[in-house]
Amino acid sequence: MTGMPITALDLTGFEPFEHEQIAWRDADGTALTLHYFELPPDLPAPLDEVARLQAGRARSAAEAGGGLVECEVEPVDGVPALRQIIKLPHWQGHGQVFLGSYTIPRATCSTVIKLQAPEYGDTGMREAVIAARIGFEDFITPSPYAPGLTGGLPSHRADDPRYDEEFPQHPLSLVRAKLARLGPSIRLDERFKALPAFG
Q: Tens digits of per-residue pLDDT, 76-125?
């Protein structure tokens, strides 16, 4: 098929970018964009090989200078999809940017819902508070998806969802909450759903 396969999603709180048809921003500064790629997905493994898929995505994030925070396979409108959160160094050189997405792959194409939330103002507060609380020696952890991985941004305990309630305006907390809200609201074109499955 051609054209955007996403036919509906919950855009509560989001306003369209000026002159953009499939991009929005909300009052928190989180950007939401939709993408359609009419070529085979570049995922490192089929969705039913979860461990290999997670390890491959962790390596890709590290090679890009970032870190894979979460990576799980879950359905979107009944179609298997990859939900992930990646952290990257802020392009302005201070703080981090968190990218959350649902990638819905088919054999010959894919569609992606992406959230992007940068840190603003005083950055690193969540990390500093948690590191001081639990001890710096226990703060950094191996990648949960590729334990021997080096490079990129390190995995650490402050990224754990248990701290989202304590830091509700942190971009990671915002991305997690908005992905959780958006996922069940997404509806896909029946022609896209009928395409051969990825992998």
A: 999 999 999 999 998 877 789 999 999 999 999 999 999 999 998 878 89
The pLDDT tens digits for 46-75 are: 999 999 999 999 999 999 999 999 999 999
d(C-alpha 90, C-alpha 86), whole Å: 12
Strands (E), 40-156: 67-76, 79-89, 96-105, 110-118, 140-141, 155-156
> What is the C-alpha to C-alpha distance for residues 105 and 75, in angstroms, rounded to an integer?
11
Q: Residue 7 is inside which H or E element, if any? A: strand 6-8
Cα–Cα distance measured from residue 199 to residue 193, given in angstroms and rounded to the nearest whole number: 15
Domains present along the chain, CATH in parentheses: 6-189 (3.40.1000)
Cα(30)–Cα(165) distance, integer angstroms: 18
Reported pTM: 0.94
